[in-house]
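Researcher: I'd like a structural prediction for the single chain below. Treat it as a standalone chain; there are no partners to consider.
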Amino acid sequence: METKANVDNETPSIHSEHVKEEFYKWFESRGLLSDLRAYMRQLMVKALEESNKNGKTVRPSKGATSPKLQAINLLMVDYLFHEDYLYTVSVFASEAQILDSLPQYSSYVTQTVRERRLEPSSLPRFSQQETEDILDTLRLPPTRQAARQATQLYLSGHESLFTCVVRTLTSSGLDQDVAMRGAEVDQEVLSVGCSHQLWSQEMENLLLLAGVKLQHIRRMQHKWAQLIEEERMIVRQEEEAQRMEWERDIEQRVRVEVMEQLRERQRVRVEVMEQLRERQ
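Model: Treating it as a single chain, here is the predicted structure.
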């Protein structure tokens, strides 16, 4: 009797473990684990927030966040969404307490669990006013050309606002370098390298201040370097195309001027010959 009872007690446990294992394999094979973790974490955060509203203190609230840090957090959330780092978003958003002001992003996590992949156009996006406010807080007011270009690039495309800002600032910096070609090449390259290095260090400090893990910052820095190199290649190709077009224009102008001079000489020669004939 005891043996039978023990077998009966063990059978459900074995069956339960088997079911858990099968469920885990099923979610893993379909790439849903990170989305499920993000969704469950979001539900936990909401439950904790509700309990806090009912008078139960979950944890001491953080001090007021500066507008600059809030703008950086918004950039990070938007970037992580576009890179499909949903689990990282759920962790970051719960610690930064930022999704309350972005209901469209919060609902996107729930929707993504039901519908695994969405088209890029279906991703949540900032409005034009929100985009300008974020950039203005980061000392990129709408009056600056870089801010206008970044806003236009973001609203007309499918990339994250952070990526658009990096592309725009990189392109603007390279345009300024091209305009200052009169300076020595070595000094110019050194100045550009120092500017990018300082900018990268400042961004790293801001991200660390925002609570982003170092490993994620390193990934983003690697992607920044790729984006910068891509933009440099594009600018170099455009410069080469412009140079070739300029050379063709110069060659054409010189050819036209030479032909006009030859025609003028021929006309003068004909006039001289006619005058000589008349005298004879």
